[in-house]
Amino acid sequence: MKLSQRALIYGIAFALFAAGFAVRFLSLPAWLHLTIYGIFAVPVIWLGCRELIKRKAEKRMDREAAWRTFIRDRNVR
Fold first, then answer.
1. CB–CB of 21/37 below 8 Å?
2. pLDDT, tens digit, for every residue of 11-21?
C-alpha cells in the first residue's frame, strides 16, 4: 500500500471519528444519533472485514505455496 493511500485512509478515519465525536454533543433525537453512527460505522466495518478476508487469503496462498515447495523439494532426488 502506498503512503498516499494509507494517509487517505487514516485521514478519512480521523474525519469520521471527529464527526462522530462531535455528534455526541449535539442534542438530536436518538434515532438520528443511531442513523449517523450507522453511517459512520458501515464503511469502517466494511474496510476492516475486507482487510481480514484479504489477509486470510494471503495466508492460505502462502501456506499452499509452502506445501507445494515442500513436496517438490522432497521429490527431487
1. no
2. 887 887 787 77
